[in-house]
Write a structure and sequence with these properties.
It is built from 15 helices and no strands. It has about 375 residues and is mainly α. Helix 1 packs antiparallel against helix 7, helix 6 crosses helix 13 and helix 10 crosses helix 12. The protein is globular and about 50 Å long. It starts with 5 loop residues before the first helix and ends with a helix. The relative contact order is 0.15.
Length: about 375
Amino acid sequence: MKKISNFGIFTLLLVSSLTIMVGTVIAPSLSGIIQHKELGFSPSWLITLPALGVVVFAPLIGWLLNKMSPLKLLALGLVPYAVLGLIGAFIDNQYLLILDRFLLGAATVAIQVSVTAYIAAQYEGEARMKMIAWQGMAIELGGVVFLAIGGILSELFWQYPFYIYLIALVCLLLVFKTLPKIEESVTEEETSAEVTTREKLKTRIIIASSLLAMMLFFIGFVTLPLYLPTNFGFSESETGYLMAFISVIAIVTASQMPRMVKLLGDGKTVTLGFVFFMLGYIVLALATGVPFLILTAICIGIGFGFTIPLLNHMTIEVSNSQNQGKNLGLFSMAVFGGQFLSTFIEYISKNYMAIYGVAAALALVIAIVMYYQFEKASSD
């Protein structure tokens, strides 16, 4: 198997960052979109519809992964990603626009699943965990960088952020130039491999944890843009800075995740991530000043860094050549499904203290249940 160059690693990380920018990159231009398009639905749908597309198309993409190589599937995702992302700026029919954003989710999950499968095929053991941690860092960093670029471009003209999707074509060129093909060799032992009851149980726990971790992480991103200006007088830019700080903490924590796994093991590290989500929302519910908000950002960022990247790695570890596509598809469904579910948290109450209190209680319950489940799966 050919070794991946540093430029190839950069390509993998750049491609990975496309998954987070799929919805957020046009967020700064929503006000311009409202002015130039007659929308019969909430503009926020333009951000969340790709996530719904990921959830719906993930099983199909997982099936396709078993039929073709990760690089072919990646190419199959990058081209429509660029095209569907760009043409959204020029579609005036609201039904076609909904369809465009929905199908963009299919391209996104093709990219996410194929990149992770490629990493799984090219790396093993600690090297794989390290690369998955880097992937998590790249995704969060991409969210910060592309959101900032989208904000700058939206001030120039409302359609300009849509052109950022064309970076997928640059990624396609880099994929062909820098990533070696996988030498596929399926042994008889792999072909006849059966999934044990213990592996099935652990897979279910991992997928459930991924859904709940991303839901808890995104509760902050859904509520803070409204909560901070109302309760603390934050401007839009100050709100953006705090949310970017959460991502920075997540990046730093993800870089240290492999060391934490060595110290505690994967199940306890994931549980610790949920404990930090709990602490973050307790502090946020009781926050009376900026120092509390900074502490909240640190806790929520750590919660992400100890859960999502590690759960991605655990999904690979519990999979074999026969069910890897299915499991990675389920992981993608869980991650984007968690984002989608987080939008419903505001239906609990109009009182943000109550919302954050519920989020903290939920995180505590999840931490206890997941600790017990991971321990049970390890001991069976």
